[in-house]
Amino acid sequence: MTDPTSRQPEPTRAWVIHPELTSDRERRDAQAALDEGISLAAALPGLLVVGSEIVRLSHPHPGALFGTGKIDELKARLKAQEIELVLIDGPVSPVQQRNLEKAWGVKILDRTGLILEIFSDRARTREGVLQVEMAALSYQRTRLVRAWTHLERQRGGLGFVGGPGETQIEADRRAIDEHLTRLRKQLSKVVKTRELHRAARARVPFPVIALVGYTNAGKSTLFNRMTGAEVMVKDMLFATLDPTMRGVTLPGKSGGVGRKVILSDTVGFISDLPTQLVAAFRATLEEVLGADVILHVRDISAEETDEQARDVEAILDALGVSPDLPRIEVWNKIDRLDAEARAARETEAARNADVIATSALTGAGVDGLTATIEAHLARETTRDVLKLGFAEGKARAWLHEAHVVTSETQDETGWEIVVDWTGRQKAEFTTRSD
């Protein structure tokens, strides 16, 4: 006989609404935006998306987002579908949220709150958890704190998704600020530890190759393909949250062994990324700022691939990534295109030395990608001849470990070593030798 206490809670019935502001000339395609909102909702455990719709309005109503007639129309639809949670794919002010919850008798979650919930569910490293909590507290400062429902108890989320009619108290800003201060102190300790790890890597400064791209572009699949790692891969937004790094040896000329690099997988970007998260995850994306080459992975099969690419570039610019930093566009998921579209994309990519068409799933084009990475690094490489005495054995070992030695001869005084290295490697070696 089944123990009734062991049953999983019923999923929360959710409805997704995308408000299309017709007065905004720069707005995204409404259907594509709604589809992304549904995917965001699907990425949060414990939700069942029952339905969705686009609501067109010229301007948002300051008190309730929608007009009275639309609110009444939606109320009837939500009641008929027994909806418990409405996800609004856009910004919702605290006043609008309170009024809509009162009118509809359901919980409201806007795009920022939903993304924070997903990040809370996915964060695994100590730093990631702390950064999400800080971002959530910054968001909560202007909102009401609500009691948890079965959805939070099931997931251990941030507590945004509460039930209507529950006790709602205004967040004590002083208490939140004190909590933020404690979190910043904890985070500073975690960041120092990570800086020590990064400094350890810098002692053998392999070039860093950072994968960036719109969420669900296939970065983790490509990362696994290139490194043999087993990072979680799922057809889901924000499947990867915490950065992952692995060493990779690139193939050399004539099938030989090439240089070693560090490949870094990062959190996927998304349009209208909450400002709290851009700030909170800047430290997590430091590996991008310090990269030698950026791989911009695009889902070339997506209808909005060009818009997604622009969103990624905008975020990189906001992070302070230099436009001069070498970038390779990886047109991923060509296996999802029909034969004619695939041939067209591959021909287009072949015309640009910094664009590679790939399928991380099948491995198509990955060899060409590694060769392009090697070519980029070679462009940044200079050749020097070093004379090291026998007492400088540690320095010689460092050069070999960094895979920068091209040739070496020995005489009665020591070694003459020919090296091909990047400016960063040369600077690190010089610092160690001083």
In short:
Helix content is 42%, strand content 23%. The protein has 434 residues and is α/β, with parallel strands linked by helices. The strands form 4 sheets. A 6-stranded mixed sheet has the order 8-9-7-10-11-12, sandwiched between helices. It has a 4-stranded parallel sheet with strand order 2-1-3-4, with helices on both faces.
What keywords describe this structure?
elongated, alpha/beta, Rossmann fold, 434 residues, Alpha-Beta Plaits, six-stranded mixed beta sheet, 42% helix, 15 helices, four-stranded parallel beta sheet
Question: What does it look like?
Answer:
By secondary structure, the protein is α/β, with parallel strands linked by helices. The chain has 3 domains: 7-169, Rossmann fold, CATH 3.40.50.11060; 206-378, Rossmann fold (3-Layer(aba) Sandwich), CATH 3.40.50.300; 381-433, Alpha-Beta Plaits. 42% of the residues lie in helices and 23% in strands. The chain contains 15 helices and 15 strands. It has helices spanning 30-42, 68-80, 94-104, 111-122, 126-140, 150-155, 173-203, 219-227, 275-280, 286-289, 305-319, 339-350, 366-379, 393-401, 423-433; strands at residues 12-21, 47-57, 85-88, 107-110, 144-146, 168-170, 208-213, 244-251, 257-265, 293-299, 327-332, 355-357, 381-389, 405-410, 414-422. It has a 6-stranded mixed β-sheet with strand order 8-9-7-10-11-12, sandwiched between helices. A 4-stranded parallel β-sheet has the order 2-1-3-4, with helices on both faces. A 3-stranded antiparallel β-sheet has the order 13-15-14. The longest helix has 31 residues, at 173-203. The chain starts with 11 loop residues before the first strand and ends with a helix. The model is unreliable at 144-156 and 162-171 (pLDDT under 50).
